[in-house]
Hints:
Elements lengths: L1 H5 L14 H11 L23 H4 L4 E4 L3 H13 L4 E4 L5 H12 L5 E4 L13 E4 L3 E3 L4 E3 L2 H8 L12
Parallel strand pairs: 1-3, 1-4, 2-3
Antiparallel strand pairs: 5-6
Amino acid sequence: TRAVLGLRAEEIHLCMAPEAEDIIVQMIRRCGDQYQIRRHKRNPRLTMEHRPYALKRDLRKGDALIVFSKKSVLALAAHLEGQGIHCSVIYGSLPPATRREQVRRFLEKETEVVVSTDAIGMGLNLPIRRIVFVETRKFDGVNKRVLLPDEIKQIAGRAGRYGIYDKG
Length: 168
């Protein structure tokens, strides 16, 4: 909302789920601004694993493990580091400079996996092989609840990287 209503720029590019299009178009029209819609096909395709995931057996380089609190991120990363698996960590309150460093370490293969909250679904572009939901419930400010389908899609959409992995 801030980007559409508050930025003073000649041009703004928004990437969003199709479900958000109507509300964004209404805001733009109310402002009297012009817009263009371009739809892009997802590359590569997303698939589901067909058997239960076991961390010890199934963890591979390029995986992103998703949990829903800073405490869980740090605990899981410490557990993996204790087993000799180098991790990048990402969560919402991570300072920007630290986040950039964690991203750099993963991009340069200094770390093998990412342990993150749903903050990973907010515009980070990493070469992630697959997303593994270690947890499927998150605290929404009031209660702990099951993830919504759109939240799952947003996070899962980080998996796969065109030109690196055939599927996510």
